Amino acid sequence: xxxxxxxxxxxxxxxxxxxxxxxxxxxxxxxxxxxxxxxxxxxxxxxxxxxxxxxxxxxxxxxxxxxxxxxxxxxxxxxxxxxxxxxxxxxxxxxxxxxxxxxxxxxxxxxxxxxxxxxxxxxxxxxxxxxxxxxxxxxxxxxxxxxxxxxxxxxxxxxxxxxxxxxxxxxxxxxxxxxxxxxxxxxxxxxxxxxxxxxxxxxxxxxxxxxxxxxxxxxxxxxxxxxxxxxxxxxxxxxxxxxxxxxxxxxxxxxxxxxxxxxxxxxxxxxxxxxxxxxxxxxxxxxxxxxxxxxxxxxxxxxxxxxxxxxxxxxxxxxxxxxxxxxxxxxxxxxxxxxxxxxxxxxxxxxxxxxxxxxxxxxxxxxxxxxxxxxxxxxxxxxxxxxxxxxxxxxxxxxxxxxxxxxxxxxxxxxxxxxxxxxxxxxxxxxxxxxxxxxxxxxxxxxxxxxxxxxxxxxxxxxxxxxxxxxxxxxxxxxxxxxxxxxx
Length: 488
Fold this sequence. Notes:
Helix content: 55-70%
Shape: globular
Structural class: mainly alpha
Largest sheet: none
Low-confidence stretches: 250-262
Number of helices: 25
Order of helices and strands: HHHHHHHHHHHHHHHHHHHHHHHHH
């Protein structure tokens, strides 16, 4: 049974691929357009900052000084989140540089030996990973990078697009920010008096609407991306290497680069400690024991801190000696500059919208024009629109939710409490789906995979975004229909 579903998708994609010839050509047109017009992600952040300041200056009563103060105040709101992003990437990357992970990839590559199978496996694995945690996109990136180095003929920019597309599924999974926030006692909506109760995840994540979304993510994207795959002149990773004298698998450190205690005799006490398993392994086992304790008493409760801790302990256990882990972490940290200095600029945009009242005004406007039939679509579009300025589900919900939830309560005034709660849950999930959708055209979260997939390769974000344009519009139509008409 485990092989039936991938085989079915492969065959269906093969049949439908003949129907996608025009879309395939359009995909190349969009890709070329983005290469010509899309600037670097940092330039995109700067342009959004200036645009947001201008809009706030025209729409709100905030003075220029108040706008600058809001920008500065927000600049530091994502410091903790930014550091968590850095750690989740480098600890996950370090796992991929370990011997056990490399052996697993080698075994998988024996069966995944064509570009089409690479795209399909990456899409399916990435969808499953994203439902566990959005941060697991780094594992998908590591898997894709290794397969691209081992399988000939894989179009590398297109593969990066496949990896990033799987990120969208997280919003319906176990780490979805907005449903978890609604289920948090004394959350900001309760503190502000907008609602006076929590919404359990059974009313958001475990609903027919979200289950339909999960089925959609597991079926449509793999078929779509296999059908739209490049069929000629692929830009393989070999062609894109910055140093053509190196082999693509230079990503993986050679064993001789890390001294092994059994193959080299330590000559100093420091060598002995660097190569000793007895210093690192006890701590790794204690950390793994704590993870078991955590999940036993808290259930399958995942958040960024526990994910980072798990990656850290597993990586230590896989590398076995301190010096091996140090070298792996050093290599994994080599290309995180984009995250380190761009996160504060997006946090500044969030601060402008949050502290000047612009976000709440937009939420109230889109919510107040809605009806019982149209409020889900307006909520979805609001989430999609504001995500360009605030690419953070929690930050965006903090800006939009008070206005939209209040409007939904007005629309549903007089309805029984269960129905009103269901309306609030639908609007909240619509915001979540919309927020995640426009990540496909927002280069911010692409920074989560660039340290892995762009290292040593001549490729830019603009080379990837063009392949996401057609999936974006297909997702937009289907998800609008889902949030508007599918039962909650």
